[in-house]
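Submission sheet (multi-component)
Chains listed below:
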Amino acid sequence: MAEKCPACGSCGMPMEKPEDYALGDVTRPYCRYCTDARGELLPFEQVLETNVGFYVESQGVTRAAAISMARAMLADMPAWRGRH
Amino acid sequence: MQAVTRQEQKVVTRDRLVNAAMALFARKGIMNTTTADVAKSVRMSHGVVFLHFPTRDDLVVAVIDEFGRRLSAEFRQAFERDLGLRAVLHAHLRVLAELEPFYARLVTEAPMLPPKVRSTLMLLHAAVSYELFVALERERKAGRARKIERPLLFNTWIGLVHHYLVNRDLFATGNSVIAEQGDALVNHFMTLVKP
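Outcome: structure written.
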């Protein structure tokens, strides 16, 4: 198996380099996209919006489909598990 | 001999389960495979599988993640050596060829799979889309490619590749349609992006 790297506990993005982590700190559980300038986790709606944009921009899917897919992905992440 | 720690054993077991699941998904189909089938194939108790992967979806996601890791390593090499769009396309196909029987099942069954699994596949596609676009832009700046919007660039490539994969029995005489048709697909795509 290929070498595994940690994934963001909020969006699941693989964090391969220090700059992928919040504040470039490899001990942090979340990536730079899911955190603010102080390294704190952003609100759910903001993280969702980033992921929706990611799907729409990369594959041209509808916004409604992107929201549904992104919600399904985030629902299982440690940061958002159990959130209704 | 060094003693194997509990953590190392856990990783070994997890890898065995992921490999076994990948083989079963390829052979029987994803929706036709249960976590009990996976447990049986590696002669482990169902409880062990459950401990690592509570649902079949978790197993499918783990297999897709493994695919993503291999892809990411191949792309990194192509990117660091600035090998261009053709090399990125070949890097993508190399990883697809390694996992072809599983991947062909995945894309065939994708519309029927739960959103969590489809979403994981879409994340993988987003990474491919990014690599293709960055490579195309480099080619474009060097006058070797024309401007193409990112989603259509990706969808044209993936549509072509997936069509051959889903119908691999029609396009390949042997076990791998990528091995037999991959070069032709890359050549065709490179013609499409020319200025």
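Remark: The interface with chain A takes residues 15, 18-19, 66, 68-70, 72-73, 114-116, 118-120, 122-123, 125-126, 129-130, 149-152, 154-155 of chain B (CB under 8 Å).
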